[in-house]
Every structure is written in structure tokens, then in C-alpha cells.
Amino acid sequence: MQSIQEAHDTAPRTNALRTLVRRWMLSPSPTAPTCHVACQVRDYAVRLLEHLAFHAGPDAQAIAFDAAWVLGEHSLWGTHGATPNISRALQAYERLAMSGNASAHARLGFLYGSPVVHSLFGVPDDPARAVAHYAAAAKQGERHATLALAHRSLHGLGVRESCMRALHLYEHEAHSTYTQSQAVVGGRMPSYTKWPVHLLEQWEQRTRQMPHLLHLPPKSGIFWRYQRHHMVPKILEEHPRLVYDAEFRHELLQILEADPSEDLEQYLFLALALYHGSMVYQSESIAAVPRDFARSAELARLVVHHYWPVDLAQAPSKTLNEHDLSVVAEAAELLGMQYLRGEGVTKDEHRAALWFERSRRAYGEYGLGLLDLYGLAGHVRDPDAAQTHFANRTFITSAYPSARLEVAKYGLARGNFTLAREGLDTPLLSFGDHWYAVYPRVEQPYIEGLVAAEDLRHGNATCGVATRKFKEAAERGDWADPIYHRGTAAYARNDIPTALLAFALAAEQGMSSAQENVAYLLESRTPLALRFWAQSAVQKGEGALHMCDAQLASGSRQASIDCFGHLARRGIRVAYWRLGWLYETSLPPDFALAKRNYDSAMQDGPHTETLYAFLVYLRLGMRVVWHAARHCDPWLLWAFATA
């Protein structure tokens, strides 16, 4: 693990001065560090845990189990400044697993099944044993084990490949996630989006090189916010550093709050940023800021008091133009939602109803719909009346996701899948099959999965479609164990061993972003890294293809061919297209091998690729004819025809 840390620290970065300072500050002292009192106390605590875990009497079994778990976690992660001790972690988890503890079984499944642990720590690679532990934990509903077992079943990793079994496991976990989300009125706040770290570093590099252009992911929900608030593009264009500089974002928030201009839209922007935890979109990792519900409510109240100076006064104080009135109405809706959910303010359903009613002209229909849906603030529970409010809200702003989601949920509850599809049918809510999210709420992919499962029963969809949707919903609801974000936090503080271990744990669950992160940290061209690149590519992650293309751009054509060849052997159809092009354009060209790769790419390919394939074969045939005529080689035509 130390070698991986050193390799990451010595790798060239885009900013040479920053790299030099970072290396100087983080490099170890030339003298061996001495263990101070804290180390001695830590070692003594470990000995106490070992005694309690392995030598406690029958009357102290509960204490022994707790001690075994703490000892295992400390040994696995190397907490309190210690070095990870995997052998001791295995002993602790084995001791705890004997009692049937699901979490211990899940940890053992990871340690015996992860190729990262096998490669770095020498733990025997035992897929059968890993699957047995995962199965024991999944029977008790353990999240990590359920997702890991589903991922293995979907791709045939150590078990028989079975899409239906994976569908069942993913649906079970997605339903659990959906239930947790519905415990909060309006849906639980989603966890932050999960972007591969190498993509974030690429955006940082591009933003540094060309700060006048905004290099942000096109499907992160940012452009939806563009349509609603002019402040977002304005601030991003003036201050591109906020994309990658957390300290600058904090300073910018303070500067904007201290601005005496009393710009209503600016205060609304700050209130939304502090409420959603990001300057660009709800729970978006890019431009993320710490959530502060209390300060968000203060800023929203500051905006609405320009129109309603007292909370309970009914008459507006002054006339505003249409734009300012729209801003005030949205701030009123935000304030009503915070009162309804008790976020930053004392929960007060009647005050929430007041602000929803006041914002009704522009935005409040959604909040009033929630009051009717749940029977709050003296409203009679009336789902039909709630749907009228939601329909009015989507009519005012067709891109408003929460109202459309409620329409879809209503249709699903009534068994009306046509209505459910209509609620989900909008381009701004189309996730695709990648790890990014336009709208990060977990309910969206779960409902899409149920609709796809219903279509599957009638033969109108494939198992893979429903499985991907349930998988997406299950991965988003990681509130109890945000292991991926534990990895990103460790990576941000340059703790590469901890980051790698956390990403490896998330990769075992089948998370594409985590698989790309593991490959990125393991030296991109090593066999183990290529294995993780391929796993991500199977799930349509694009990082592996970019990595192979980068090798070609650096002048290493053979390395690029080897890279795409590894992906092709894993069944990545796009890799066959790239391989064919590389053989077609190499010096000397190998047209027969190029044709074989194109043929492999066409096998079981979608009908939408027919025109593309025709153009590719036409181009290849023209190259063959031209090459044969130029070199007077008729045998080339015969070899190509028989390939």
C-alpha cells in the first residue's frame, strides 16, 4: 500500500508547483518516527480488544462481539494512525461470523473475494468462500452483501450467471432504499453523486487551462438549474475555481452573504446552495458545499420578507416586478418545505401551508399537493386532489422533477403503468445506463425498474433493463454506509491506501465509478487495473475506452491495441470497433484482422448500428481495393474476401 501511495505522490500533475509543494509537505521525515504516548495507548487498547474478543467468558459474549467488530474495523482500515493488519482483521471477523453476524460475513466476503485484497495483502483468492459469506449475510438483508451477490450473479463472477437472480436481489435492495426515502415527506435528501476521480481531475485541468469555458458534465443537472437561475451561470463564469476548489467555494459564500446589494436572486441562490449542499444542483458533488439548513432558512426568509414583511401578515408590503416575484415565490416554497420537514427550523405544518399558499402563483402547487397527499396541516387526505396540484405544477414548469415523480408514484399505486410512464417520460429525467444522474432522487430509477419489470412480465422488455434500474436505485440510497464517499474523502486528503480500500469495497458491490477509481489508482496499465477497467466497461463506463485512447494519443499504438484487446476479450463490443480501426489504419495494415473485429462487433449488435456498420465496411473495402491497386497485390483481395 505504501508503494501505491508513493506512486500516486510522484505521478506528474498538471500543476508542477502544486505537485512540488505537496510532495515536500507530505514526504516522510528522513528520520524514523518514534512512537509517542498516543501510539502506546493505541497498542494497549488493541491488546484489550484482542483479550475481550478472543478470551472473554461465556457471560460476556455481547461485549466480546462488540470488541471483535471494533478490532476488525480498526485492523482493516488502520484507524488512529495504525497500519492495516488484514490477518488480524480476518481473525476478528471470523470470530464474529461464528455468531451469525451479517456485517462480519459481508466483510469476510470482501476480503476473500476482492482481487485488490488478494494482490496487495496476500489474502487467498477464494471466490467460493466469498460467495458463501455473501450469501449468509444477504439472507439477513445486509446491504453490501446483497449488492455484491447481485453483481456476481449478473456477470457470472464466481457463481452461475443469472439475470433473474440478480433482478430479485437488486429489487429487494432497491425496495429497501425506496422505503427509507419515503420515510420523509417529499422524499429523503439523496446522497451526493458519485463521479470517478479521474474525470474530476480532467475537468479541473480543463478549467485551469481554459477558465473562460465551462467544462462541466452535460448530464449532472447543472443545465436544468441554468434554466431557472441566472445566478448559476453568472457565478460559474466569473469564478470557475469553484468547480474544483472547496476553500474558494466557502470564501465565495461568505463574500456573497456580505454583499450589501440586496440582490434577491443572489440570496435565493445562496439559500438553495446551502439547502441542497451544492452550488449547482441538489446533492451534486461538483461545486459541493456543506449543508446548513438553518442559514438556508434565514436567507429564504430574508428574500420573502421583501414581499411579506411578517410571516403571518396576509397583505404584501409592496409591488414587485414579474422576475422578482418569481424569485420570492420560489424562496417561499423553499421555506415552506423546510417548515414541513423541520430542516433548520422548528417543524410547523401550518406555517408550511402558509408559505406554500403564498407561493402558489409560481411554485407552491407542489407543496400544497404534499399536504393533500399526506393529510397534513388540517388538510383531508386526498390523493386525487394532490395529483391536481402536481399536474398544475408540471404545467407551470414541465421540467420540475419532484412533481412529475409524484404523478408517477400515483399511477404506480393505482396500478396504472401508463400514467406512471407519463410521469417519467421527460428528457431531463433520462438517466441512461451510466453512473451520472440528472436527478439524484432514488425514487426515479426504482419506479422505472418497476415499470420495466411489468413490461418484462408481458414480454415487452428484457431482464437487463429492469435490473439496471433497480441497481441504480439501490446504489443511490447508501445513507447508512456511504462507502464510496468515504473513499473520495480519503482521496481528497491524499490518503490513497484508505481510498483504494474503500473504492475496492464499493467495486465489489458493482459500482462502476468505484471500479474506475480502483483501476486509476492501481496504475492504469497493470493487469489488475485492466481487470477493473473491463468490469466498468461491461457496465458501459467509458473510462476504460478513454484510457485506451489516451495510450494511442501518446504514440503507443501497440499498447492501445493490447488495451482494447483486453476489453474485447471481456465482451466489450465498442472495443471491437476500435480494434478494427487500429488494424485497418496500422502500418502495414491488416485488413483481414480488421474485418474479423468488425464482424465480432456486429454479432448481437443493435439494429441502430446497421448504417454505421455499412459505412465502416464500405470504407474498409475501398481501402483494400486502393491498397491492392497501389501495390499490385491481387492476393490481398482474395485474403480479404476469405477472411
CATH architecture of the largest domain: Alpha Horseshoe
Distance between the termini: 47 Å
Q: What number of structural domains do the residues give?
A: 3
Contiguous runs where pLDDT drops below 50 for at least 5 residues:
14-33, 211-230, 395-399, 427-438
Q: Which CATH top level class of the largest domain fits? A: Mainly Alpha
From the spread of the alpha carbons, the general shape counts as globular
| Record field, number of beta strands | 0
Strand content: under 5%
Mind explaining what this structure looks like?
The protein is an all-alpha fold. The protein has 3 domains: 173 residues, Tetratricopeptide repeat domain (Serine Threonine Protein Phosphatase 5, Tetratricopeptide repeat, Alpha Horseshoe), CATH 1.25.40; 249 residues, Serine Threonine Protein Phosphatase 5, Tetratricopeptide repeat; 100 residues, Serine Threonine Protein Phosphatase 5, Tetratricopeptide repeat (Alpha Horseshoe). The chain is 66% helix and 0% strand. It is built from 34 helices and no strands. The longest helix has 22 residues. About 9% of the residues have low confidence. It comes from Malassezia brasiliensis. One of its GO terms (cellular component) is endoplasmic reticulum membrane. It holds the Pfam family Sel1.
Sum up the structure in keywords:
66% helix; mainly alpha; Serine Threonine Protein Phosphatase 5, Tetratricopeptide repeat; 643 residues; 34 helices; 0% strand; single chain
